[in-house]
Amino acid sequence: MLVSSALPAVTATAFNPPSIDEFFPDAFWLVGTPLAINRVIFVRLIITAVLALMLVLSARAPKLVPGRWQSCMEMLFGFVRTNIAEEMLGGKARKYVPLITIIFLGVFFMNATGVIPGLQIAATSIIGMPLIYAVVAYVAFIVAGIKEQGAGHYFKTSLMPAGVPKPLYVLLTPIEFFSTFIIRPFTLTVRLLANMISGHLLLALCFVATSFFFFEASAALKGFGALTLLMGFAFTLFELFVAALQAYIFALLTAVYINLSISEH
Question: Transmembrane ranges (predicted)?
């Protein structure tokens, strides 16, 4: 059921390209209740359970000489700690490593569902999930700033940068407020959402076109099916790369915002 509903239908008479309606499927469980579950929510539940299981297995009975699984997980954790947290936060990175690691892994796994057979839609292609991660990052950098500098000093340095003539604060403070406390969570959300939506639509278009050319088009056009199939596989690899890249960017920006909050300007 999940596979068949992942792609738009192709009729015998026309080519039906993917549309935005794919991201709003009907509920199939607990229908009519506030807890109604559709395919996107179901994918989120599955990948959350998989990620939680992986983290539990990686933390259970670690060995001094790690096996393949433990080595892979340690390499992944080390990448986040060294290349994101420590790169941005330096000596203050340690206390923020768990948060940044969870953000990186969560965003990557939610993104990667777009190329997993049987799931075939990114769990971050609906605004709810990107918004939740953006809110977590938003709260994290504000709380970090308040803990490090105190509430009064943090908001003062954020909204009234030092070295600026006082009359300019009338103009500068609203701009700083808007850019720091409004634009940051908005751009985090929209960047991730837009990439996942466009990636899914490209993949769906390639494979729906393949089906159309192979089974519905005239004999003269069937050769195009091989081309769209090849493009579909190429876009699948590219989408997996984008899934990792967007997770890296999201975690990196979270670390950058935390660093800006805990550093006096």
Answer: 38-59, 96-116, 122-146, 192-215, 227-258
For 136-175, the DSSP string reads HHHHHHHHHHHHHH-HHHHHHHHHS-TTS-GGGHHHHHHH
Q: Both tokens of residue 112?
A: 């990667």
Residue 5 CA to residue 192 CA, distance in Å, equals 23
Structure tokens at 162: 């030092």
CA distances from 73 to 97, 129, 221 (A): 15, 24, 47
- State residue 14's pLDDT score: 65
Q: pLDDT tens for residues 54-73?
A: 988 887 777 777 778 888 88
CA distances from 178 to 21, 124, 159, 184 (A): 33, 25, 10, 9
- Of residues 170, 108, 128, 104, the one with CA closest to residue 38: 128
Average pLDDT of the chain to the nearest whole number: 88
Crossing angle for the helix pair 184-215 and 128-149, nearest 10 degrees? Answer: 160
Structure tokens at 101: 């690691």
Angle between helices 151-159 and 169-178 (to 10 degrees): 110
Bridge partners of residue 29, in order along the sequence: 37
Look at residue 126 in the predicted model and tell me its pLDDT.
93
100/82 Cα distance (integer angstroms): 11
Integer Cα distance of 208 and 10 in angstroms: 7
What is the average pLDDT across 78-90?
94
